[in-house]
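Summary for the lay section of the report: proteins are chains of building blocks that fold into shapes. Here we show the chain for Glycosyltransferase and then a coded description of the shape we predicted for it.
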Amino acid sequence: MVAQTPNRESLPALSVAMSVYNGERFLAEAVDSILAQSFADFEFLILDDGSTDATPQIIADYAKRDSRIRPIIRENRGLVASLNQLLDQARAPIIARMDADDIAMPERFAKQMAFLAAHPDHGVVGSWSRDMAEDGGPYVTMGHDHPVTHAEFLHNIRHGGPLLCHPAVMYRRDIVRAQGGYHAAFRHCEDLDLWLRLASVTRMANLPERLIRYRHYAGQVSKRHATEQQVGAAIAYEAWRVRDAGKPDPTADLDVLPPIEELDAFFGEPGVAARVRAAVAHGIMHSPVALRDNGFEIMLDHVRGGGNQAGLWRTVARLAKLGEPGRALRLAAALATS
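The coded shape description reads as follows.
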């Protein structure tokens, strides 16, 4: 049975927000999974962020076939600018995020919309995900499922753990806009910073169902920009800690985060830089990209400063296997003398 297409003259119940950059490889699968949703009363904003491949043409072809699609084609401005533009141009009170390399299950929107209708005190709802490899096959991870209740969210914020899978999230537009949307300073971890800010103003949940298939591949942002992502995430948690103590957030109006060595002065307390270095050092241990870029120097600074060495001797062996014997020796020497 083909879902009825809503009248474009009326406001949709839901806005689907997707930003794409050079996404031709997986885009059709992602778009098809949205158009196949059992809940059909949505507009589908697809923003092309200056792609140089066939992405704009793919979007245009889909827009000709389904009137719910609102294409936005423009020059490259980056993901944070794109997400905020989608947030501003969405017409519905509720927004569903979607990435151009993932696949949504047919009942995703119906179940999340029903949850938000039944829980007006919740501003954000995500879902569990099913990991898949680049070719769509199984992908094994050792991570934990995302928290289900708001209490579990707060526990994970305080003690470590996942919060939300960004492309599986649905949220109330006004709540996110009232918090300033996505902050430019937290590039590559803009979603985590947003969840940490939202956690103090609304309730958040995940449906304990795998309503999205999340793709892992070498070209995704979390792998290409692992060090910057880890640094930003660690600073986002420091900013949350400040807000949780009832103090003004010094990162609120930043466009760029300060260097790690300036963080103690920036936050006005000692120990911030050391905590950030520790978080980064242990967050990049399994990232070949980060171990080859400036993440390695952050790890060395952490060790030389007397930081926790747990797991770092295994990183020495990992560096050797990666063909980085010089870095392996430098890390081993730092561990041996600290």
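Put simply, here is one thing we learned. The beta strands are 14-20, 42-49, 69-74, 94-97, 103-104, 122-132, 170-172, 203-215.
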